[in-house]
Known about the structure:
Blueprint lengths: L1 H12 L4 H24 L15 H37 L4 H5 L2 H23 L16 H28 L2 H19 L6 E2 L5 H4 L10 H4 L3 E4 L4 E6 L1 H10 L3 E4 L6 E2 L4 E6 L6 H8 L2 E4 L8 H15 L7 H19 L7 E3 L5 E4 L5 H16 L3 H15 L5 H21 L2 H18 L4 H7 L9
Parallel strand pairs: 4-9
Antiparallel strand pairs: 1-8, 2-6, 3-5, 3-7, 4-6, 8-9
Helix pairs in contact: 2-5, 2-6, 3-5, 3-6, 5-6, 7-12, 7-13, 12-13, 12-14, 13-14, 13-15, 14-16, 15-16, 15-17, 16-17, 17-18
Amino acid sequence: MKARLLRLSNDLRESYWFVPTVMAMAALLLALAMVYIDSHAGSTWMDGLPWLYAARPDGARSLLSSIGGSMIGVAGTTFSVTIAAVVYASGQYGPRLLSNFMSDRGNQVTLGTFIATFVYSLIVLRTIRSAGESGAGTPAFVPQLALLVALILVLCSIAVLIFFIHHVPMRIHINNVIERIGDRLIEEIDLRFPVFVGVPLDEGTDGPRVPTAFRADVGRTEYERRAPVRAKHTGYIQLIDESTLLDAARDHDLILRLQYQSGDFAHKGSVLLEAWPAERCDEDTVKALRGAFAVGSRRTALQDLRFLIDELVEIAARALSPGVNDPFTANSCLDWLGAAMADLARRDLPSRLRADEDGVLRVIAHPMTFAGFIDRAFGALAQYASADMIAGKRFLNALGDVALSCDDPGRIATLARHAGDFRALADGSLDGACRDAVLSRADDLLRALAEPDYKRRVRDGNAWLGGTA
């Protein structure tokens, strides 16, 4: 249930209807409150303010009609401009970036402000009456305070319109798009590591802690003691509620092995996880474990770092395509990927073995490795960047920046492997001076990474002086 609520919260943040609806309802309540105050307090309070003049029924109707008509017109124009910007950005940068623009709070509040002002004007307009309109002797009624609030809302709407005109082009500027994705990637890395789903256990204790049923040499008898929890829906796993998994495993003394992670595609009937021993896993437990997985039609960044990395890779790959040929956009993506991987290189990645608060193994998750994230980021871009001198040199610069944050020899070996693979790709993709420039930069990096004082060599090497290519 918690996983579904979190997914619903994310869907509401990425919708264009929720915030405008809330603001329209707030405007409705505000209009009713202002009319109520006017009907009980009257307008005599305005007599002491010489710069305010009480409006008559005809003038009040004309004013509110103008406000309401103009606001709904501007709201329609705003919506059209927003959709046009979203379509442009989706086609230019990739369809997976659509949710980034849909979740933009500025666009949602702008649309909501105009609709709220329209609703407020409509409700207040309905309450105005002339003398004798409702019968002989009926006095005129003009909600003066409500009219004043309507004017304030108009001024707010004008300010929001000015903001919107500035906000839309800034929002679709490619550097700002990349910055928002990169910032969120770094923020998620900071939130996720080093702990995720329980307390990590030392990998060195893998043997005695992992049950025989989950080992590679498992026998048929032990294998049959694994209870599969199957998916009931088809789609992408958007969220895994780790607290539900740990609570269910602890309450029933189970050990769970996850078969999927956030961002993976699961179909109906596929095994989401396996629980051991099977005799302790009843129908209610299976239902609770299944409810820890939120499945949807698309990937999200709720728990999926790979999705954010893929967004940057997609923008860079499109920029390096022959039809676009924009290596400087690819350079921006490489800069943010390098910053994110450098931040990751300074952190300890959690073990795949996760324990409860008592130190008892409860969950066996997918292993998260530095090499896996580097493969996802730089490995996926190597084939595109190796065919362009500008992007190729920046690719190697980014690897060097990541190396400056690494202290583990295994991680340095991973970076050296990627630099070597990239050199081989560039050797076959480039010609002439472009080829020589990239290969020289790759050789400098490989020589530096092979030395014990690689940080000094990378930092002081001529290829890295002055920053970037």
